[in-house]
Specification:
42% of the residues are buried. This protein has helices at residues 11-16, 32-36, 46-59, 73-83, 99-107, 121-128, 132-148, 165-177, 194-207, 223-232, 254-265, 275-286, 307-315, 342-351, 361-372, 380-395, 439-451, 498-522, and strands at 27-30, 63-67, 90-96, 112-118, 152-158, 182-187, 212-216, 237-240, 303-304, 333-334, 402-411, 414-423, 429-435, 455-464, 473-481, 488-495. It has an eight-stranded parallel beta barrel with strand order 1-2-3-4-5-6-7-8, surrounded by nine helices. The chain is of the alpha/beta class. It has three domains: 25-287, Alpha-Beta Barrel (TIM Barrel); 300-395, H-NS DNA Binding Protein (Irregular); 402-522, 2-Layer Sandwich (Double Stranded RNA Binding Domain), CATH 3.30.160.270. Bound molecules: 3-methyl-2-oxobutanoic acid and zinc ion (ZN).
Length: 523
C-alpha cells in the first residue's frame, strides 16, 4: 500500500505547480507492443505479445496499442487474440491513413484504431510527396471510413512538433468534425523542448474539444520532461513504452511517467507496486537489458555503496532516495565495494544474519578494501566467506609457524617451482624451494619440506564462491601427521588467488597440528 510517508520529493514542486490547473485524470496509452517492438533488435512472437499485454493490463494500463494490423497476417491474428483476452484495457492497432490499413484493423475484430499521417512540411515534401490539402483530405477520408465501420479513432499528426500550427489546427479540427475521438501530438523525432511543447499543447487544447494525447521520443533526452509539460498544459493521454524502448533512443518510459504523475502531481495511474516486476518481464521477453542507472527500475536505482550514503539510508532511507523501493515493488541493495564504510558492511552482515564480533571489524574491513580495490563489488557470498574465515581463524589457536614469503614460478614450458620463507616454532627462518605437478602442489610441497615433511595432504577441496574469474575461492585441506599421532588437522582459507589461498589453508592445518601436539605434550 503506497502512502505519503514513502515519498520525499522536493517541496518546491508544489509551489511551482500552484499556477497549473487541477490535473485529475491521465490515461496511459502503452505502445510497447508497437513502437517498442520497432526498436532495433526486438522481435516478439505471439506468445510474448500475449504475456506482455496481460501484464500491462494487470499493471493498470488504459489503452494498449498491440501492433500494426496491416503489417502481416500473423500480426492481424495476434491482435485478434489480444482483443479477445477480455482485458480491462482497450486494445487498438496502428494504421496509416489508407483504406487497406483500416480494413486490416476491422479484420482483427478490434473496435479502436490509431491512425496517423505526417503533417510537417519536411515529411509531406520528402516522404509523402503530397500537398497539405491532399494530406488533410486523406486524413478526413480515413477517419470517416473508420467511423463508418464502427471504429473509435485516435488521429495522429506525425512529426507534429515540426508542423506549422495553422495547418495542424486546420487538420485536427477537420478530423474532429469527421468523428475522431482523440488527437495525438507526437514529438516523432524528439526535437522539442518542454516549454515549447507545453505551449503547443495549451494552444491545441483550447482549440479542440476532443482529448489530447502526447507521444514523446527521447532522442534529446527530453521525453519525460516533455510528457509532463504536456500534462501540465491539458494533455490527458500519455503514450509511451515500458523501459523506454521504441524507435531509435526510444519513447518516454511509462514507469517514469506513472511515478512522476503520482509523486509530483498526485495523479494515480498504475498499480505502482507492480512496476518492477512488469518492467522486468518486458526486459526478459524483449531481451532489451535495462541499464543499471535507469531511473525507477535500474539495479542501481536503490543501490548504495559509499559510506556516507549507506549511513544516511540506514538512519532514514529517504535521506538518499526520492521514495522507498517498495513503492514500485523493488528492493534496496547495500553494495559492499571500494567506497564502503563499516556501516555498509555492518548493515550487510545484519541483513545476512551473521553475528560478527565487533573487535574483528578492522580486519574484515581491510579484507573487503583489498578485494574491492580494483572496483570489484564484493558479493554477498564473498562477504559471508570472508567473515566466516576471519571468525574461524580467530577461533583457531595461536599461529606457531609464519609464512614470511612465497614465490611461485609456473608456465607451460617450466616445471612449477615454489620458494617459501617460513619462521618456524623454534624461531628459526628457513627458505626452501620445491617443485610439484602444478603451482599449488609445488607450494604445498615447499611448506611441508620447510616445516614437517611427515605432514601429508589427505584431502584438498577447492570451490569458487562466485562464478567469475575475478571472484573468490575457498580452499579446505585435511592433513595427516604420520610422524606423531597420525591425527588429522583441518585448515581452511578464502581469497582471490588459488595458490595463495591454498597455502593459507595448508599453513592453518599445520599450525593446528602443532597446537594439538603441544597440548598433548603439556598434559
Ligand atoms: O513517433 C511517432 O510519430 C509515431 C506515430 C505513429 C504516432 O510513432
Ligand atoms: Zn513513435
Amino acid at each position: 500500500m503506497v502512502s505519503e510517508d514513502m515519498f520525499a520529493v522536493s517541496q518546491y514542486n508544489q509551489l511551482a505547480l500552484s499556477g497549473v490547473g487541477p490535473i485529475k485524470d491521465v490515461k496511459i496509452f502503452d505502445t510497447t507492443l508497437r513502437d517498442g517492438e520497432q526498436a532495433p533488435g526486438i522481435a516478439l512472437n505471439p506468445d510474448d505479445k500475449v504475456r506482455i499485454a496481460q501484464a500491462l493490463d494487470d499493471l493498470g494500463t488504459d489503452i494498449i496499442e498491440a501492433g500494426f494490423a496491416a503489417s502481416s497476417d500473423i500480426e492481424r491474428d495476434i491482435l485478434k487474440q489480444i482483443g479477445k483476452l477480455g482485458l480491462n484495457a482497450r486494445v487498438c492497432s496502428l494504421a496509416r491513413c489508407v483504406k487497406k490499413d483500416i480494413d486490416a484493423v476491422i479484420d482483427s475484430d478490434l473496435d479502436y484504431v490509431h491512425t496517423f499521417i505526417a503533417t510537417s512540411d519536411l515529411h509531406m515534401k520528402y516522404k509523402l510527396k503530397m500537398t497539405p490539402e491532399e494530406v488533410k483530405a486523406k486524413a478526413v477520408e480515413t477517419v470517416e471510413y473508420a467511423r463508418e465501420h464502427g471504429l473509435d479513432v485516435m488521429f495522429s499528426c506525425e512529426d507534429a512538433t515540426r508542423t506549422r500550427m495553422d495547418f495542424m489546427k486546420d487538420i485536427l479540427l477537420a478530423v474532429q468534425d469527421a468523428g475522431a475521438e482523440s488527437a495525438n501530438i507526437p514529438d516523432t523525432v524528439g526535437v522539442i523542448i518542454p516549454k515549447a511543447y507545453g505551449a503547443m499543447i495549451k494552444e491545441l487544447h483550447s482549440a479542440l474539444k476532443i482529448p489530447i494525447s502526447v507521444h514523446c521520443h527521447n532522442d534529446m533526452g527530453l521525453a519525460l520532461a516533455n510528457s509532463l509539460a504536456a500534462v501540465e498544459n491539458g494533455a490527458t493521454i500519455v503514450q509511451g513504452c515500458l523501459n523506454g524502448i521504441g524507435e531509435r533512443t526510444g519513447n518516454v518510459a511509462l514507469e517514469e511517467v506513472a511515478v512522476n504523475l503520482y509523486a509530483n502531481y498526485g495523479v494515480k495511474t498504475y498499480d505502482l507496486s507492480k512496476i518492477a516486476s512488469t518492467c522486468a518481464l518486458v526486459e526478459r521477453i524483449t531481451g532489451f537489458s535495462l541499464a543499471a542507472n535507469k531511473p525507477i527500475v535500474g539495479y542501481n536505482a536503490f543501490a548504495h555503496e559509499s559510506g556516507i550514503h549507506v549511513h544516511g539510508v540506514m538512519a532514514n532511507s529517504l535521506t538518499y532516495e526520492p521514495f522507498k523501493p517498495e513503492v514500485v515493488g523493488a528492493k534496496r541493495h547495500i553494495i559492499v565495494g571500494k567506497l564502503s564504510g563499516s556501516h555498509a558492511v555492518e548493515g550487510k552482515l545484519e541483513e545476512m544474519n551473521i553475528k560478527f564480533p565487533q573487535e574483528h571489524m578492522p580486519e574484515l574491513m581491510e579484507a573487503v578494501k583489498r578485494m574491492s580495490m580494483t572496483g570489484k563489488i564484493v558479493t554477498d557470498a564473498e562477504l559471508e566467506a570472508i567473515a566466516e574465515d576471519i571468525m574461524w581463524k580467530k577461533s583457531v589457536e595461536k599461529r606457531e609457524c609464519v609464512l614470511d614469503e612465497l614465490t611461485v614460478v609456473t608456465g607451460r614450458t617450466t616445471t612449477p617451482t615454489a620458494t617459501v620463507k617460513i619462521t618456524r616454532t623454534d624461531g628459526k627462518s628457513v627458505t626452501v624451494a620445491e617443485t610439484g605437478v602444478g603451482p599449488v602442489n609445488a607450494a604445498v610441497n615447499a611448506i611441508r619440506k620447510a616445516i614437517n615433511p611427515k605432514m601429508t595432504m589427505e584431502e584438498y577441496k577447492l570451490s569458487a564462491i562466485t562464478g567469475k574469474s575475478d571472484s573468490m575461492c575457498q580452499v579446505a585441506v585435511t592433513m595427516k601427521n604420520v610422524q606423531n599421532d597420525g591425527e588429522m588437522s583441518f585448515g581452511r582459507a578464502v581469497g582471490t588467488d588459488i595458490v595463495e589461498t591454498s597455502v593459507d589453508a595448508t599453513m592453518a592445518a599445520i599450525n593446528r597440528d602443532f597446537s594439538r601436539v603441544k597440548r598433548k605434550k603439556e598434559c
